[in-house]
Amino acid sequence: MIAERLCMVSREDGKYVIWAVYFDRNVSRRDGRRVPEKLAVENPSIDKIFEITKELGLNPVIEKNARHPSRPWRKDGRILVDKKDKKEKLIRKIAEKLA
Questions:
Q1: Fewer CB near the last or first residue (10 Å), C or N of the chain?
Q2: Would the pTM of this model clear 0.90, i.e. be above it?
Q3: What is the pLDDT of residues 28-37, one digit of tens each?
Q4: How many whole angstroms separate alpha carbon 91 and alpha carbon 69?
């Protein structure tokens, strides 16, 4: 599903926000990368991450014009996924499939 507009996500929505920057080898941990360098990739595609989250059965919703708070000048996009596990576990599963 592709969202037409950005909306604020609250804890009660049962969704996690997944940003492409979490998987970007060129970004430091301080600036938003959430995976080890060995699992990070160069310029991760939000579309590829969306496909992986679909494969994992996370009912993803992509918001292509979203801007990560640490990179407000870039529209990297974000994906909203169901809270089916701990966020760090989901990020790691996505990273393993992405790498």
A1: N
A2: no
A3: 999 999 999 9
A4: 18
Q: Which domains does the chain have, with CATH numbers?
A: 11-98 (3.30.56.30)
Which of 24, 47, 48, 44 minimizes the C-alpha distance to 34? 24
Nearest to 23 by CA among 73, 86, 82, 90: 90
Cα–Cα distance for residue pair 61/25, rounded to 1 Å: 24
CB atoms within 10 A of CB 73: 5
Q: Which pLDDT tens digit goes with each residue over 21-80?
A: 999 999 999 999 999 999 999 999 999 999 999 999 999 999 999 998 888 899 999 999
The alpha carbon dihedral of 74, 76, 80, 86 has a sign of: negative
| Contact between residue 48 and residue 18 where contact means Cβ atoms under 8 Å apart | no
Stretch (H or E) spanning 28: none
